[in-house]
Structures are given as C-alpha cells and as structure tokens.
Amino acid sequence: MEKTRFRTVAFLISFLLMNSFSAVAAPEMADSFRADGKIYVVVAVVCIILIGLFALLFWMDRRLTKLEKK
Question: Are 39 and 33 in contact (CB under 8 A)?
Fold first, then answer.
C-alpha cells in the first residue's frame, strides 16, 4: 500500500514538473542553429561521441571477459 502511494505521488510530481518546464520558451541558440543548418553538425558530433563511448564499453567488456576467463 505504501509503495503504491509513493509511486502515485512521484508520478504526479513528475507530471507537474514536465508541464511547468514545457512552458519555457525555446532557446534562441537552437533556432539559430536550425536556421543556419548547423544543427546537423551538432547532431553528428553527438552521434560520433556516443558511438565512440559504446565502442569503448564494448572493447572493455571483451577485455574483462578474457581476463575473467584466465
């Protein structure tokens, strides 16, 4: 019973916070990037960084697995 009440309160609080943040105006920087076409560069850089992080994690996992087998 206590967990259900906690989850309900947490859901309501998060819902209220989402609604309050959605009323904030969009930053001007994002509009200028989108207008200049530079938003694609930003997205590409973020994707490259994420791919690099995932590759690093995959590589480390393989090395740790080899060490654990020894």
Answer: yes
